[in-house]
Design goal:
Shape: globular
CATH superfamily of the largest domain: Butyryl-CoA Dehydrogenase, subunit A, domain 3
Order of helices and strands: HHHHHHEEEEEEEEHEEHHHHH
Radius of gyration: 21 Å
Strand order of the largest sheet: 1-4-5-8
CATH architecture of the largest domain: Up-down Bundle
Largest sheet: 4 strands, mixed
């Protein structure tokens, strides 16, 4: 087993770090997010950092999925918001459209998004269907050549500035009738309320669809959507994992700098053995999670990671990122807990990723099924 990146990957990481340090090194970690900055999206796209793992024929770079993970990790460690831009340009909605869009959909929606000219996001979660995505209530009804949407979404990332929304809906009465359709922001009957904020300060959107009519050619999937899109969800989980890991690394970097400079009782904090051990444990958590992340990405056959390996990577990176940020905050004491402190921001971002993209409990369920060797429903059995 080869644990070394090849020369091309090392060059890619070095060039990406140089770019990120030059552009955002001074602003770096703690940047309030008021929509993803379009200049950053365009800059990253111009540098060939969009669609990294997508085929060149549809506007991508035809590189390995691991390369996309490496780029995301390198950027997010320096600037979390720029990392969010890499995520938007390579994971999530971008992957969903690339996997199932028609040639016309790829031309109209994917290529402008890959150029950084337009922003696309996923609208899946509903007030009464969070982790239970098969319980979607948003309805997609055919009206001639068009689709009429009625329903509501919540916790939609980047809704304040997105141009396109990949809206997951039910096209029929059965769970397998779930699918996805692209809705443009200014479509009549579509309303975005982006006044809400997560604890980290990020905006999220509540979306309302009331007799919202969309062209039928915007449909990505209208049946068995979750089954056919499952591999794409696993790619998104690696993006979530990479950002968790990168932010945990950023927190460790801040902690090391702080304990080397801060003095207490006439000694540097780093001279206390208890803190030395704590730093070693933090490094162990990050290094272990990184190996699982890289393995999942490197083993992705045809760019499609194993569900179990993706879940292991996300769980490990979510935990490592959060626990390392938590320990780093503790080393700063009250200075780290100030609401304007970088560590408070990092701590809250890592906490959010333990919920987004599949909760840590969902990851545990999926991993347990792999260990046991059978699929176990978490729903109560119906009474006969």
């Amino acid at each position: 087993m080869n644990f070394k990146l090849d020369d091309a990957q090392l060059d890619l990481v070095a060039a990406t770090r140089t770019l990120a340090s030059r552009e955002w090194g001074g602003d770096a970690i703690h940047s309030p997010s008021q929509g993803l900055p379009r200049p950053v999206l365009r800059l990253l796209a111009a540098q060939g950092l969009s669609g990294i793992s997508l085929p060149e024929g549809i506007g991508g770079q035809s590189r390995a999925l691991l390369d996309a993970v490496l780029v995301l990790e390198a950027v997010a460690e320096i600037s979390v918001v720029a990392g969010d831009c890499i995520q938007a340009l390579n994971f999530g909605a971008i992957q969903q459209i690339a996997a199932h869009g028609s040639p016309e959909v790829l031309r109209r929606f994917l290529r402008p998004a890959l150029a950084g000219a337009k922003l696309v996001t996923v609208a899946m979660t509903e007030p009464d269907a969070g982790s239970g995505v098969t319980d979607l209530r948003t309805r997609a009804t055919r009206n001639g050549a068009n689709i009429v949407l009625d329903g509501q979404k919540i916790f939609t990332s980047n809704a304040d500035s997105a141009d396109y929304f990949v809206v997951w809906s039910r096209f029929g009465a059965e769970p397998r009738d779930a699918g996805a359709i692209i809705v443009e922001r200014d479509t009549p009957g579509f309303t975005v309320d982006s006044s809400h904020r997560f604890a980290s300060g990020e905006s999220y959107g509540v979306l309302y669809f009331e007799n919202c009519e969309v062209p039928g050619e915007n449909v990505l999937l209208d049946t068995d959507g979750f089954g056919r899109m499952f591999m794409v969800f696993n790619i998104e989980r690696l993006g979530n994992a990479a950002r968790s890991l990168a932010v945990g690394q950023a927190a460790l970097n801040l902690a090391v700098k702080h304990v080397r400079e801060r003095k207490q009782f006439g000694r540097r904090l780093v001279d206390f053995q208890g803190l030395q051990w704590r730093l070693a444990e933090m490094e162990l958590q990050l290094q272990g999670a990184r190996l699982l992340l890289y393995r999942a990405a490197a083993n992705a056959a045809g760019g499609k990671p194993s569900a179990t390996e993706a879940c292991l990577a996300k769980l490990a990176c979510n935990r490592a990122g959060f626990e390392v940020a938590n320990q780093a905050l503790q080393m700063f004491g009250g200075y780290g807990f100030d609401d304007q402190a970088a560590l408070t921001y990092l701590f809250l971002r890592t906490r959010g990723w333990m919920i987004a993209g599949g909760t840590v409990e969902q990851m545990l369920n999926r991993i347990a099924e792999s260990v046991i060797g059978e699929r176990i429903s978490q729903r109560p059995q119906q009474k006969s």
